[in-house]
Amino acid sequence: MSDIETTIKRSKVPAKPKRSPAKPTDAALAPVITIDGPSGSGKGTIASAVAEHLAYNYLDSGALYRVMALASLNREIAADDVDSLVELVMIAPVTFKRSACGGSDVLLEGEIVTSELRREEVGLRASQIATIAPFRTALLDRQLRWRRPPGLVADGRDMGTVVFPDAPLKIYLTASAEIRAQRRHKQLIEKGIEANIVGLLADINERDDRDYNREIAPLVAAADAITIDSSTQTIEEVVTKVLDFAGNRL
Ligand code: C5P
Asked: Does the pTM exceed 0.70?
């Protein structure tokens, strides 16, 4: 055996550099409180109050679905045009900004559209396109990016089941359809908008039906969620409950 061969055989194979176990990023460590439930159950009000108390970030995922719905209506994209809807998620210039009054504003193409998003037509369109699997998948990444320190409160339909399944605290907020229609009616009348309670109840039932029965990410309480029925409770009572649970779990 030549010297060279011996040298090669005897030379130690350099030890593989030891890989330190993948460190979870700050974002992955940030705690998440998910609040899911049907339209009008008070999720948005409760979630933003909880986020404010804890100084957490707040994701209103319904607003994300609604702004895509509005963009699709503006661009005259059909509710079943899957490719154009998925492309819309990639190209629609959407931003969320803190508003002057402390809430948050949604901007589409640089214009504030926050109140336009509440139109019934936009809500119905959102619930139609929300049944499309590739569209939901395209929106997933945008939602995950909201998870940042010190923590996140996320409200929607599938926050605890699909988007943040590892959230340490999951709330499922319900209220009867009649109570939800009455609340919506009161909100609209207070804003000086004419409203018909029978029509509102029909819209709520139609949207519930679609949200509960769709094949992808249907509205359902996560197995480890705490259910709160807000029908007979005030906002303050529900917020206090959620903060108590947060105090015990986070
Ligand atoms: O919560 P909000 O009523 O604003 O949501 C509008 C619609 O968007 C819902 O009716 C639902 O169909 C859809 N949505 C969803 N998943 C979410 C949030 C909203 O499917 N996480």
From this structure: yes
